[in-house]
Amino acid sequence: MSARPPAAGVGIFYFQSHRASCCAPAGRWGQTDSEGRADSRAGREEEVEVRFDDSPFRASSEEAMNSRLRHWREAATVLLAARRGAGAADGASSSSSGPFDYELLMLRRSGRSAFMPSAHVFPGGVADAADFSADWLALLPAGAPRCGLSAVRAGAPRAPLFTAERPELGEAALPGDVALRICAIRETFEEAGVLLLVPAGAQGAALAAAPGPATLLPPERLPPPAELAEWRRRVQRQPGSFLQLCRRLRCAPNIWALHEWNNWLTPIGRPGAVGREDRRFDTAFYVCCLGQRAPSASLDQAEVTAYQWSMPSEAIELFKSQKIWIPPPQLYELYRLCNFSSLSDLHKFASERALEGCERWMSVLLIAPDGFIQLLPGDELYPEDPDFTGERKPVLTTHKKIEDIMKEANRLHRIVTQGLSNVTIHVNIEPQYKHINPFVMNSNTENNTDSNSNSRL
Fold it and tell me: Are 334 and 102 in contact (CB under 8 A)?
C-alpha cells in the first residue's frame, strides 16, 4: 500500500445537511474506552464547561445506539473510483500524470439547492421504501443470507442503520445493508447517469464473485440513449421505477461491488447550517472500485450541475484553493483515500476491511473565543454520553483559546477551525475496525508521518 501525500493546506468546514451524502463528520460508534477518556479529563472542569438546557431528558448512549433514531433520515452514498489512463471519458481529470492511478466521481450540487448549494459531493441520496422491496429478490440471490454479501465478522458491533428492523416496511423487507446499497446505486444513476449493474442470475453472480474491481455492463446491454434518459427521469420521479428498469434489462444492482466504509451522522447544532435544523442524515458510505476507465457521466440539470473525475489529491487541492467546496465527511474521506495510490490496493483494503463492519460517527462542537473544535469520538474531550437526539441541545464552551487547549491535549481526534483559511485535523488515536486514519503530513517538518501522529492536513 503506497501513499502519495497532498500538500499541507487549509479549507473551510461548514456543517450543513445534504439530501444524500453530506452528513457532518462524526466519531466512533460503540466506544469501549470510556475509562481512558474519563481519566484524561480528570481535574479539567475549569477548562471546558458543558452546558445543557433544562430538559429532563437523558437518553443513554446504549438506548440511542440500539434503536433507530427518528431524528435522522436514512441515506447512502458511494465513493466511486475508476482507473485513470489515456482516453478518459469526458469530464474526467485533464491531468495525464499523477501519483494515483484512479479517480473519484464528484458531483456539484445546484446553486439553487436549499442544502449544500454548489457543494461537491459523492453520488448518493435518501433511502426509499422501494429500495427495501422484497420484489428485488427476483433478481438477487434470494436463497443466500443477505443476498450473498460477505458476512461481517461475528461479534463485530454494528450500527443500527445496517441492522435495525423496519416493521413499517413489512416482514419481507430486505436487510438494511442490502437496501442501502441499492439506494446508493439507484442514486448514482439518478444523479450521474452511471449504472452499476450486473446480469441477473448465475452470470451476474459469477461476475460479482470474481476477485478484483468491478466492471460495468457493456454498451450493447443498455437501451438506446433516449430510452435510457427517459428511464432516468422516471426513476427520479418514482424510485420504484428503478426495479422496473432492472427487470427490463434483466440485470441486478451490483451490491457486491459496494464495500462498507463508514457511517456518518449529521451532528447537532452544526455551525453554518442553513434551512431546517432538524434535517439530519444517517448515511452509509460505501467504496466501489471500477477496473476500467472513468465512464462518461451526464447531468440531471436539477440537483447536479457539474461533475468531475479527480484524483483524491487533486480534489483536495481544488478545495484548498477555494475553487470548489467539499463538505467535511467527503473531505475527511478524500484524505483517507490519500493512503492509496493504487486502485488495486484500495479495492483490496476496502473489500477486506468491510468484513469488520464500520463505525458510526457524530461530531460534537466545542466553541472557543477564537474559533471552534469539532470533537470526534476517541478524543479526550469527547462526551461519554453524546446527545444523539438533540433533545438536550448541548452547548460545549470554553474560555480558553484554541492554542492553549491544543497544548494541554494528549489524545486527539478533532477538527480545528480558526478562520476562513485556517482548518486543521488532529489525529493521534488508533483507528478502529481495522480502518485507516486520514493521510497526514507533519506541519513542522513537512515529512510524511504514520497514521497515528498528531499532524496538520
Answer: no
C-alpha 47/C-alpha 399 separation (Å) is: 7
- Can you tell me the distance from the alpha carbon of 239 to that of 241, in angstroms, rounded to the nearest whole number? 5
* Cβ-proximal residues to 133 (8 Å cutoff; 6+ apart), any chain: 173, 174, 240, 243
Domains of the chain, first to last = 72-356 (3.90.79.10)
Q: What is the DSSP string of 150-179?
A: PPPPTT----HHHH---GGG-TTPPPHHHH
Distance linking the first and last C-alpha atoms of the chain: 20
- Find out whether 376 and 363 touch, Cβ atoms under 8 Å: yes
Residue 4 has pLDDT above 60, yes or no: no
What pLDDT band is residue 329 in, cutting at 50, 70 and 90?
Answer: confident
Q: pLDDT tens digits, residue range 227-270?
A: 999 999 999 999 999 999 999 999 999 999 999 999 999 887 65
Here the cell at position 54 is: 433544562
d(Cα 223, Cα 245) in Å, to the nearest integer? 10
Cα 434 versus chain centre, distance: 17
**pLDDT range class, residue 322, cuts 50, 70, 90:** confident
Strand duo 124-126 + 72-83: pairing: antiparallel
Locate 254 and state its grid cell: 451490483
Half-sphere exposure of 121 (CA within 13 A, CB side): 32
- Give SS3 for 19: coil
pLDDT tens-digit map of 44-93: 333 444 343 333 223 334 444 444 555 689 999 999 999 997 444 444 44
Residues 6+ apart with CB under 8 A from 73: 126, 127, 279, 280, 281, 282
